């Protein structure tokens, strides 16, 4: 495309969506889009030669090609969901087909927009910082727009990924911190749930009951923060009665520097993400 010529706008009612890479993350997004009625399966495509890997897509009606090039030729929006270490090779191989009329999206961890745009030959690129919670439709997702991506492009992709979680559009300079909180942070919560369950077992609860109660406690607490809009500190104060069991437990958490440890975990993960992105 000639320099300075505006790319063709995406037809929001008729565009076709293609996934390059047919792994768990891609299938969870595709399945969410179809099941929620956001996009019909007839307008979603991917490519994979392994019959077993095709099932997650074909079971909801998504067409699976043999070659990635067919996906790019067919689709208007291309989502790269391959492993970070092969992303450059895949983009360069498909390069001649990746015109600026194609809106490109990367789910790969680590690769910044500047590099992605160089590989593709244009800036109509959007970067998504994903989360494994996409598999259950509850991901915390950060999204960054490339220099050639329009506001309409951003809205389109935010609506698509809203099928598997909640999307925050932000400057890419915040990507490492966003990935630490929304991506790595889910693992920190898993550790906390496990620790609470172990505490329940130590206090006499059966393992299954302890794990279920702990997981539901986190789920309920998160729902209250999201739905009430109240600060978590205010919600904590509502539970912690004077001289009660909750404040006694919080006292122990404070003695163990729980909050400082969680803050340090986020800071450490952010630094590591920055290092990997260099």
TrEMBL record:
Domain Pyrroline-5-carboxylate reductase catalytic N-terminal: 16-110
GO biological process: L-proline biosynthetic process
Positions that bind NADPH: 68
Reactions that this protein is recorded to catalyse: L-proline + NADP(+) = (S)-1-pyrroline-5-carboxylate + NADPH + 2 H(+); L-proline + NAD(+) = (S)-1-pyrroline-5-carboxylate + NADH + 2 H(+)
A GO cellular component entry from the record: cytoplasm
PROSITE patterns (alphabetical): P5CR (PS00521)
Listed Gene3D superfamilies: NAD(P)-binding Rossmann-like Domain, ProC C-terminal domain-like
Subcellular location field: Cytoplasm
GO MF annotation list: pyrroline-5-carboxylate reductase activity
One Pfam family linked to the record: P5CR_dimer
Pathway(s) the chain acts in: Amino-acid biosynthesis; L-proline biosynthesis; L-proline from L-glutamate 5-semialdehyde: step 1/1
InterPro entries linked: 6-PGluconate_DH-like_C_sf, NAD(P)-bd_dom_sf, P5C_Rdtase_cat_N, P5CR-like_CS, P5CR_dimer, Pyrroline-COOH_reductase
Binding residues for NADP(+): 20-25, 81-84
E.C. number: 1.5.1.2
Domain Pyrroline-5-carboxylate reductase dimerisation stretches: 172-276
Sorted UniProt keywords: Amino-acid biosynthesis, Cytoplasm, NADP, Oxidoreductase, Proline biosynthesis
Family (UniProt): Belongs to the pyrroline-5-carboxylate reductase family.
Protein name: Pyrroline-5-carboxylate reductase
């Amino acid at each position: 495309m000639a320099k300075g010529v505006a790319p063709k706008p995406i037809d929001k009612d008729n565009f076709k969506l293609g996934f390059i890479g047919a792994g768990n993350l891609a299938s969870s997004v595709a399945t969410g889009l179809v099941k929620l009625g956001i996009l019909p399966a007839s307008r979603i495509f991917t490519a994979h030669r392994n019959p077993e890997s095709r099932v997650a897509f074909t079971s909801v009606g998504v067409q699976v090609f043999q070659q990635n090039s067919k996906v790019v030729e067919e689709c208007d929006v291309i989502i790269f969901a391959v492993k970070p270490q092969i992303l450059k090779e895949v983009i360069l191989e498909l390069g001649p087909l990746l015109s600026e009329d194609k809106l490109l999206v990367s789910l790969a961890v680590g690769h910044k927009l500047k590099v992605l745009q160089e590989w593709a030959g244009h800036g109509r690129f959007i970067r998504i910082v994903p989360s494994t919670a996409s598999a259950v439709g509850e991901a915390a997702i950060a999204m960054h727009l490339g220099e050639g991506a329009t506001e309409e492009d951003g809205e389109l992709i935010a609506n698509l990924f809203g099928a598997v979680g909640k999307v925050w559009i932000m400057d890419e300079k915040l990507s490492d911190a966003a990935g630490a909180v929304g991506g790595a942070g889910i693992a920190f919560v898993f550790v906390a749930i496990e620790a609470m369950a172990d505490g329940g077992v130590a206090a006499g609860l059966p393992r299954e009951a302890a794990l279920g109660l702990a997981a539901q406690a986190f789920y309920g607490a998160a729902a209250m923060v999201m739905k009430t809009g109240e600060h978590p500190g205010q919600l904590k104060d509502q539970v912690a009665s004077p001289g009660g069991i909750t404040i006694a437990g919080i006292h122990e958490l404070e003695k163990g520097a729980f909050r400082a440890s969680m803050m340090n975990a986020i800071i450490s993960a952010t630094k590591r993400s920055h290092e990997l992105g260099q």
